Amino acid sequence: MFQLFITQISVVRNFILVRADIARLPFVTSSVDAVHAGAALHCWPSPSAAVAEISRVLRPGGVFVATTYILDGPFTFVPFLSTVRQNIRQASGSYIFLSERELEDLCRACGLVGFKCIRNGPFVMISAAKPE
């Protein structure tokens, strides 16, 4: 089971830390201000299911921030090769490294906007928000 720690902030001094399965977050839809996933996205068995679940729980204007490692190269330009690469990695249980463009497409497909990426070699920090 892959887990994610979420901080739900209602008042600056009050917050709750929750340990949960990233694919089944125990929050009401549109109830979380922000989600941070530190160096985790590449470890999730299905990043698309996880980001969709994050998008579900974010309130309008809520922010998703994540750090992960990316993979660049010829896979990023040929969609068929990218799909084959991901299917092999998922079946084998190894890490799933997406390209910067794939991360942006993933956020967009899950309803998040304003994608930003700060890159330091293969390590990136991304952010996106749920529309107001």
Topology:
Blueprint: E1 3-11, E2 14-21, E3 32-37, H1 47-57, E4 58-69, H2 79-92, H3 100-109, E5 113-120, E6 123-129
Give the percentage of residues in beta strands.
35-45%
**Which CATH top level class fits?**
Alpha Beta
Strand order of the largest sheet: 3-4-6-5
User: From the alpha-carbon coordinates, what is the Rg to the nearest angstrom?
Assistant: 15 Å
Structural class: alpha+beta
Please outline the major beta sheet. 4 strands, mixed
Please indicate the count of domains.
1
Number of DSSP helical runs = 3
The topology string of helices and strands comes to EEEHEHHEE
Secondary structure: helix percent:
25-40%
CATH topology-level fold name: Rossmann fold
Task: Write down the overall geometry.
Answer: globular
CATH superfamily placement: Vaccinia Virus protein VP39
Number of strands: 6
Instruction: Write down the overall mean pLDDT.
Output: 81
Examine the secondary-structure arrangement and name the CATH architecture: 3-Layer(aba) Sandwich
Distance between the termini: 32 Å
